[in-house]
Design goal:
This protein has 329 residues and is mainly beta. It has 2 helices and 22 strands.
Length: 329
């Protein structure tokens, strides 16, 4: 598959032909209708600097904060370049749903996905990365495969059958050489207004001989997307991180998006650095994010709600990131 075609399919696998210094993973969020079951399942692979590596399925239980890392040989990984279609060992993942068979994991069974809603892909702006998706030397690339979709089916959760009928899913992915040196990320699709989803992040982005504080945010409401990003000309007006909260404010010529997320404890996931896969990153699936969207011209509030069952990661060189953000205002 050519570079252009691959860029226009962020949901697909980008690692064909890669021999070393590469990772790719799909973040599959599953929340039952009553929200009691909240899980993240992450299939992927990692190739180290010496050409060795591993495939894996990670699992995070948002309710108990426990996590599992199920390791597989590289030959047990298969994925398509033009679509979301992944197999790791006996487990499979696609736009139609997933089947989990994890010898050392807590989940077994199958779920069906319905009504995928991806970040729009165009030639000029192929997904959440915008034109940065065409830059060949980015440290980490990102894709939103589905803001919001429904779940059907039953999973065996540590031997107990649990229905996910009427539940809600979210699906994104990352690929490249390594996670950023410092970043914040938040995501929720559980608001009072149905079919609403938020994802937002800020990170230290290496660029040529230096770096800059990159940011991306999307507020999706039943097909309408408010996007704020470095490449859209938006501004990161505020980025504050302390022991209790993450505060982000982004604005463009038309809208301002204010986010206040309370920090809570989470479980530990494995994340890629340039030499190995096992840097530990804490992620919560129990955060709450206060969201306010307003008009820049009039100041009128267009949307103001709290997102529940929110994913939150706060990691790395945060003082450097927030200092860089202040310097760009």
């Amino acid at each position: 598959m050519g570079l252009l075609t691959a860029t226009l399919h962020p949901e697909g696998f980008h690692g064909h032909g890669k021999k070393k210094r590469f990772f790719e993973g799909w973040y599959v969020k599953l929340v039952s209708a009553d929200r009691a079951q909240r899980w993240a399942v992450i299939p992927g692979l990692f190739l180290g600097p010496d050409g060795g590596g591993e495939a894996f399925v990670q699992v995070l239980d948002g309710a108990t904060k426990r996590s599992w890392f199920c390791r597989y040989a590289l030959h047990e990984f298969e994925a398509q370049a033009g679509s979301f279609d992944v197999r790791v060992g006996p487990s499979t993942f696609s736009a139609k749903g997933l089947t989990l068979s994890l010898a050392d994991g807590p989940l077994q069974g199958s779920l069906t996905f319905s009504g995928f809603n991806p970040w729009p892909v165009t030639l000029a702006s192929p997904g959440i990365m915008g034109w940065y998706a065409y830059v060949p030397f980015m440290e980490c690339y990102h894709g939103v495969v589905s803001f919001w979709h429904t779940l059907t089916g039953t999973l065996s959760v540590e031997g107990r059958d649990v229905s996910f009928d009427g539940g809600v899913g979210y699906l994104e992915k990352d690929w490249g050489q390594a996670f950023p040196a410092g970043y914040v990320w938040m995501q929720s699709n559980h608001f009072a207004t149905p079919e609403t989803s938020l994802v937002a992040s800020a990170a230290i982005i290496p660029w040529l001989s230096g770096s800059f504080p990159g940011f991306i945010a999307g507020l999706w409401q039943r097909g309408r997307l408010y996007r704020f990003a470095t490449y859209t000309g938006a501004r990161l007006e505020q980025l504050q991180v302390d022991d209790t909260h993450v505060r982000m404010t982004l604005a463009d010529g038309a809208h301002r998006l204010e986010l206040v997320t309370a920090r809570v404890g989470g479980g530990l996931l494995h994340a890629p650095v340039r030499t190995q896969m096992h840097k530990r990153v804490e992620e919560s699936l129990d955060a709450k994010v206060e969201v306010r969207l307003s008009s820049v011209r009039s100041g009128a509030t267009l949307f103001e709600e709290v997102g529940h069952v929110a994913g939150l990661e706060v990691h790395g060189a945060l003082e450097r990131l927030t200092s860089m953000a202040r310097g760009r205002r």
